[in-house]
Amino acid sequence: MNRQANIAICPFSFPASLPLGPSIIKAFAEEHSDFKVTCIDLNAEWYNTFVDAALAGKSFVQFSPEAKADFAKAAKMFRDGGDVFWDEAEYQRLSRFFESTIRKVENVFLDGFERACAHGEYVPPIKAYAEHAARKLIANDPSVVGFSLMFREQYMPSVLIAYYVKALKPDVKIVFGGGYTSACHPSILFANPFIDFVVFNEGEGGFHALLMALDEGKTSFDGIANLIWRNPEAEDGWVKNAKSPSVDFKTQPYPDFSDYKLAAYFQPEPVFPIMSSKGCAWDKCTFCTHHRSYSGAHRAAATDRVVGEIEHMVNTYGVKRFAFVDEMISPGRFRRISEDLIEKNIDITWYALAKPDLIYTEEILEIMHKGGCRYLLWGVESANQRIIDLMDKGTTPDGVAEVLARSTRAGIRNHLFIIVGFPSETEAEYLETMEFLYQNRDNVHRILACGFSLDNGSIIFKEPERFGISRIWDVSNIATISVKYDVERGVGCFDTEKHALFWKNNFFDHFEAFKGDLGLFRNHALLHYTYPDRIKPVGGRRVPNPRKLKPPPYQAGPGGKSDRKVLTK
């Protein structure tokens, strides 16, 4: 057996940062076996190819001379930076235009992939692209080709490209994995006869064990944790093995990003992802399903290992900007990591997700800032205590306000997650959140809000009555994570995005500088906060009083139609 395995990252997910999961799997498999694993980012390649074609006038997108000039400026801004990256007015204008153009092209291709996968209708560019991608994935004669999916939009492109990989090289083994794959029911994936295996939850141990089993010529895979495998003798045609923690941090090498081109990720200075723990230290939020990406309880790497990984990335790739992608890091752990970075004189800046607990003292936040922290993404979600308790956040509005004030005084910017339309939430309760944001506007530097999404596997999904949900739509055969539902009171699921968009346009967006929604803003924000002296601000920003706004009627809307779609035949 040829000991070559490839891992593909397929469109469509705007290439805001380097893929972390495949890099972890690659490093682990290569350190613990004789296999060579190559990560192939078809996703980043697709976006760069489109941009280059558009700039050369070879894309189906038609620009006026003025629009073409703006597109060229935006592309250069995202790729190379330059003065325009620091000009707030131009950044906002160009990023909106760039995003709008990209989204339109994505939708055209997504429609083409859906028609091909669901109905067998092939638009010529889709077939040509899928065959091109498949040939690239088998060019080095792999025995295994894996597909890493983090988002729903990657599903149909991955399926179609996998189909052509198998058609061109019938003996290759096709493996699907990643966060989105873990959320899909196996019957959806194995309805595609060319998919042989699915790795769910944590992938490095399962993928490595699968490679070893295939190399030994095994045909039964019962003992491999976190693996689903095709078995014609099983009742359903597949067998799902038990899940378990994949590997210990002590035996896990640092991620290997060597297969990626740093210039392909639409940011003028690379921002590297780093994961210092698996799972969530809090792990109680009733709306959350992130636990599906991990096996077992929360596990954290030793502080010296985390700082060692950062130091390795600095020395190996010359990077100085980092994004902690942990679900949550405790204040004490942040303090120890920051103190080690200070002691070793590692000059970096970084951001992370956090829970706004009062145990974030001013001293801890000051140490974090000295250790390179420039902003935190706080899981605030709501400022109404009944809703906070339903979410099981373990916070209070007064406590959150104090933490935000302390963070600002320490020099750390505050980005807040807010959920619009939580089940049973009334208009008066949501206006409490708006009023809270308005009263604390000097300590709120960006709001990231979305309409509530009911995810299959969350506590709310399992106990809907407790949250005022009267009916959940049929979810027996879907490949999507979020599901539709009806509520007894409050805003219904068919209207949450409408309300979220209203508040975004009329309220949330007035808090921040450098607006942008391509997924890039998290990394771009770090660069803006790292070099504040370069910024040319718009000035004159004023947050409106939410009591003077007129949102859409806040009422439940039972009924309607499900947007469920069949993704494969």
UniProtKB/TrEMBL annotation:
Pfam families the record matches: B12-binding (PF02310), Radical_SAM (PF04055)
Cofactor dependency: [4Fe-4S] cluster
InterPro entries reported in the protein's UniProt record: BchE-like, Cobalamin-bd, Elp3/MiaA/NifB-like_rSAM, Methyltransferase_Class_B, rSAM, rSAM_horseshoe, rSAM_sf
GO-annotated cellular components: cytosol
Domain B12-binding, residue spans: 72-221
Gene3D superfamilies recorded: Cobalamin-binding domain (3.40.50.280), tm_1862 like domain (3.80.30.20)
Keyword list, A-Z: Iron, Iron-sulfur, Metal-binding, S-adenosyl-L-methionine
Record region (Disordered): 538-569
Domain of life of the organism encoding this protein: Bacteria
Xref: SUPFAM superfamilies: Radical SAM enzymes
Coiled coil region boundaries: none
GO MF entry, a single one: metal ion binding
PANTHER family assigned to the protein according to its UniProt record, in alphabetical order: ANAEROBIC MAGNESIUM-PROTOPORPHYRIN IX MONOMETHYL ESTER CYCLASE-RELATED, SLR0320 PROTEIN
Protein name: Fe-S oxidoreductase
